[in-house]
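User: Could you go from structure to sequence for me? I need the amino acid at each position, not a summary. Structure tokens:
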């Protein structure tokens, strides 16, 4: 049995930093949408993160799989690259044109509730239990209370329903990719994160060009917002 992880002050500091970065995502996305189209926001996020991660991965020797991957493993990595970054980032950026940032935040909190039944059926040793269900439910209720009931208020926009469905779709993508990632063979975490971001960039950049054309030149404040958004996948890695 592996030793229990040692939780130090640095551990709590990293958790707080990650919470701050993730929590600011939805507000900063709304700011970025004032000048940038949604699909270019998604492409910029993963492109910035991929660039940073390539440098870090190179310093670690470009390690990835500890054994030769099968075709199924390679296909799974490509799918995870799309489902963990490219598709959900695009859906969130598009959906937040029509929903509140609070609703998007609550939707992302529901990701754990989607993972729970998926893990029960597809991940050995992750069967649902009353304790897990209660824990996830209490956590979700806590997020709703912290964000406030205004997260569910209508914005009155014509595509609000589609925007909400896009946010829910993003949560489903995160949950599905998380389950498939758990089924991969032994792999270097930094290497995997980098490959996934490269795949996501190769998907989102052409898609943004096809749908929205060349990107507008962002102002310094919007450039800073885009850089902040690029920190999220980097910090998660």
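Assistant: Here is the amino acid at each position, in order:
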């Amino acid at each position: 049995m592996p030793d229990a992880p040692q939780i130090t002050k640095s551990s709590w500091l990293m958790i707080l930093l990650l919470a701050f970065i993730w929590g600011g995502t939805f507000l900063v996305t709304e700011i970025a949408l004032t000048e940038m189209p949604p699909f270019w926001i998604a492409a910029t996020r993963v492109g910035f993160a991929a660039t940073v991660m390539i440098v870090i991965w190179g310093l670690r020797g470009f390690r990835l799989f500890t054994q030769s991957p099968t075709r199924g493993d390679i296909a799974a990595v490509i799918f995870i690259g799309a489902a963990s970054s490219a598709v959900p980032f695009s859906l969130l950026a598009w959906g937040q044109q029509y929903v509140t940032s609070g609703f998007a935040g609550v939707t992302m909190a529901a990701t754990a509730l989607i993972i729970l039944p998926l893990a029960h059926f597809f991940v050995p040793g992750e069967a649902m239990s009353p304790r897990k269900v209660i824990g996830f439910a209490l956590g979700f209720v806590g997020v709703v209370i912290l964000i406030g009931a205004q997260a569910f208020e209508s914005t009155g926009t014509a595509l609000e329903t589609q925007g909400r469905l896009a946010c829910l779709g993003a949560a489903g993508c995160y949950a599905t990719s998380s389950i498939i990632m758990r089924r991969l063979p032994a792999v270097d975490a930094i290497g995997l994160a980098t490959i996934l971001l490269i795949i996501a960039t190769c998907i989102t950049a052409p898609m943004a060009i096809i749908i929205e054309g060349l990107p507008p030149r962002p102002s310094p404040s919007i450039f800073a917002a885009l850089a902040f958004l690029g920190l999220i996948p980097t910090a998660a890695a």
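One structural detail worth keeping in mind: Residues 36-60+188-237 form one domain.
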